[in-house]
């Protein structure tokens, strides 16, 4: 009788553990889902959605290195919940598995990207680099072209501040602005590779 009772309790505990769910969508650890990935890569409204229903997935997608700006994707991913998350790391996230479909974005609406990111470790950082005469938000992946000379001069001003920060990193120098918002569209001349910056807003 005791053995039967022990087996029943063990089975109940295992069943309970298997049914544990996490995150805003109450997903099981290891559960496969379909996600909709926005064409607005690294933008303010770059929201990851769970299908069906286009519901905010409530977590980030890791390992999707094939992603190109300007394309929306349906992907298969696996929900992952770490028992012991890394310090300052997320408790749960999605792990990319495969692309189901890929579609080029045909619209021309502008959107906003932030050129200063405030990391938990290391503080604020300007997301701008320069190779030759070309500016990049993400090196070798996402170029920032400019609509006019005013924007070009502003990008150069930001780049000069990046160089100042690098030269004085031991003194803890930080960006001279609290935030930098760039209004962009997908650059039709370099679609999938660049955003065309129409306007830059500096916030002191």
In terms of DSSP E residues, the strand content is 35-45%
Rg, please? 22 Å
| Helix-strand sequence | HEEEEEEEEEEEEEEHEE
Approximately how much helix is present in the residues?
Answer: 10-25%
Which features characterize this protein?
alpha+beta, 2 domains, six-stranded mixed sheet, 2 helices, 18% helix
Account of the 3D structure:
- This protein has two domains: 23-104; 111-203, no CATH class.
- Helix content is 18%, strand content 41%.
- The longest helix has 19 residues, at 149-167.
- The termini are far apart.
- It is built from two helices and 16 strands.
- The chain is of the alpha+beta class.
- The strands form four sheets. It has a six-stranded mixed β-sheet, with no helix packed on it.
- A hairpin with a 4-residue loop joins strand 1 and strand 2.
- This is DUF4377 domain-containing protein.
Give the SSE map.
Layout: H1 2-18, E1 21-22, E2 27-28, E3 32-37, E4 49-51, E5 55-56, E6 61-62, E7 71-81, E8 92-104, E9 111-114, E10 116-119, E11 123-126, E12 129-131, E13 134-138, E14 142-146, H2 149-167, E15 179-186, E16 194-203
Parallel strand pairs: 6-8, 14-16
Antiparallel strand pairs: 1-2, 3-4, 3-7, 4-5, 7-8, 9-15, 10-11, 12-13, 13-14, 15-16
């Amino acid at each position: 009788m005791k053995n039967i009772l022990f087996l029943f309790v063990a089975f109940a505990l295992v069943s309970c553990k298997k049914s544990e769910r996490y995150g805003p969508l109450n997903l099981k650890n290891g559960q496969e889902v379909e996600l909709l990935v926005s064409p607005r890569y690294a933008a303010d409204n770059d929201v990851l959605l769970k299908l069906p229903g286009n519901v905010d997935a409530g977590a980030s997608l890791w390992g999707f290195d094939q992603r190109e700006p300007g394309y929306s994707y349906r992907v298969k991913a696996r929900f992952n919940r770490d028992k012991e998350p890394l310090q300052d790391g997320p408790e749960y996230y999605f792990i990319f598995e495969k692309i189901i479909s890929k579609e080029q974005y045909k619209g021309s609406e502008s959107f906003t990207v932030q050129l200063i990111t405030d990391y938990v470790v290391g503080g604020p950082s300007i997301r701008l680099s320069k190779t030759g005469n070309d500016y990049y938000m993400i090196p070798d992946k996402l170029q920032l072209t400019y609509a006019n000379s005013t924007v070009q001069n502003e990008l150069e001003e930001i780049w000069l501040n990046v160089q100042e920060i690098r030269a004085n990193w031991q003194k803890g120098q930080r960006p001279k602005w609290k935030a930098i918002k760039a209004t962009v569209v997908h650059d039709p001349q370099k679609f999938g590779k660049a955003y065309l910056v129409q306007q830059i807003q500096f916030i002191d």
